[in-house]
Amino acid sequence: MSVTPDDESFMAAAIRLSRRHLGRTATNPSVGCLIVKDGVIVGQAVTALGGRPHAEPQALAEAGEAARGATAYVTLEPCSHHGKTPPCAEALIAYGVARVVISVTDPDPRVSGRGISMLRDAGIEVDAGLLEAEGRRSLAGYLTRQTKNRPYVTLKLAVSADGMIGRAGEGQVAITGSEARAEVQALRAETDAILVGIGTAISDDPLLTVRTPGLEAQSPIRIVLDPALVLPLTSKLVETARDVPVILVASEEVSPLAADAEGLPPSVLPDISPTRGEIGKEREPNSQNDSSSRSTADVGQGASPQPISPPVGEMPGRAEGGNTPADATDLDSRRAALEAAGVEIVYCNPYHPEILLPALATRGISSLLVEGGAKTARLFLEAGLVDRIQLYQAPVIIGVNGIESPLDATDIPSGFAHTGTQMFGVDRLDEYERRL
């Protein structure tokens, strides 16, 4: 590959462009495309909201006749198959571009290498792998769902100077300052879904939405691990469920379908994997790369094939701050009230993340932010299903009754590489990532 400094500059711009619609392109990746002629950008686009049109035809249409003989910079290999839209490789050929520069080769078996072959067969020069590490990072959600059949998982923790993430019994405790909190809002805005445990949902009563002016519509789906359905009907999550989707992940034991399995312990309940009509219910395919289902053995590096023990304090019937429904009638009433408020209830053991994550992927969720609390963080860490750690460290002291962080900068799990440090006011953010 013959790469010039200009090539790197234009690809970096395409990658920045691609990030504009992260979390907003359904199951399609958010791809950036620049059309450049004689050193000038004559067309540019990012995958449209909802996933269509793709970036390439939009950028080509903007360039028009200027695309002939130009160079296209694309963050992901152009698609080569007919779906609900024609192949992007065909569009590049039809417009007469002379060269295509690609950051990341598409792992979708219907595309991988075929888009490049189509372009080369048409006499177009193709260079692939430019700024690949940066490109893969911008496409992390899509690549993880394609190759591991689960969302890309980011764990975000804000830790005080004395190693705490909160104070017991006091709800939300501000640890980081306004600059760091604004950065977290930006992260939420580019993420498909955000997840917390029932203890955090009850004690903090969070909204889990994006509150940055102008980005409110980019709030992620909100997911709560709530095995016994104890989330209060008066919680902010329930009260806003019709504005921003809320999913409660409940135990199969409280499912209306559990009557036939009454008396069996959870470990031997039949069909523990998600079933059609529950969390894994089918969605209308709307992706340029509708992937076929894969074995949960491919869930992720380090994933445990064994059930994960429920965190102490979040066992069904012992959820912090919650009241377990007294009997079947009470449970049915609570379920009906939650659903009437717009909450979706799905039945997939909350403490089997190696099953839950692929089920979320079937619903088009490519990126997941785990934001609380300590027990839920440990659950995903111990399962080996965290891909990126965002560790904020603040100078505040929590002191007595502090809730200890599940990790700090001195005990990052093996397999993670430190990828950068940023300062937001007095708060320090360190990021760690597994190799995709």
TrEMBL record:
GO molecular function annotations of the record: 5-amino-6-(5-phosphoribosylamino)uracil reductase activity; diaminohydroxyphosphoribosylaminopyrimidine deaminase activity
Keyword list, A-Z: Hydrolase, Metal-binding, Multifunctional enzyme, NADP, Oxidoreductase, Riboflavin biosynthesis, Zinc
Transmembrane segments: none
EC number: 1.1.1.193, 3.5.4.26
Residue stretches making up the CMP/dCMP-type deaminase domain: 5-127
Region (Disordered): 261-329
Presence of the UniProt keyword Ion transport in the record: no
Listed InterPro entries: APOBEC/CMP_deaminase_Zn-bd, CMP_dCMP_dom, Cytidine_deaminase-like, DHFR-like_dom_sf, Eubact_RibD, RibDG_C, Riboflavin_Biosynth_HTPR
Annotated metabolic or biological route of this protein: Cofactor biosynthesis; riboflavin biosynthesis; 5-amino-6-(D-ribitylamino)uracil from GTP: step 2/4; Cofactor biosynthesis; riboflavin biosynthesis; 5-amino-6-(D-ribitylamino)uracil from GTP: step 3/4
Biased composition (Polar residues): 286-306
Recorded family membership: In the N-terminal section; belongs to the cytidine and deoxycytidylate deaminase family. In the C-terminal section; belongs to the HTP reductase family.
Function: Converts 2,5-diamino-6-(ribosylamino)-4(3h)-pyrimidinone 5'-phosphate into 5-amino-6-(ribosylamino)-2,4(1h,3h)-pyrimidinedione 5'-phosphate.
UniProt-recorded name of the protein: Riboflavin biosynthesis protein RibD
Species of provenance: Rhizobium croatiense
Gene: ribD
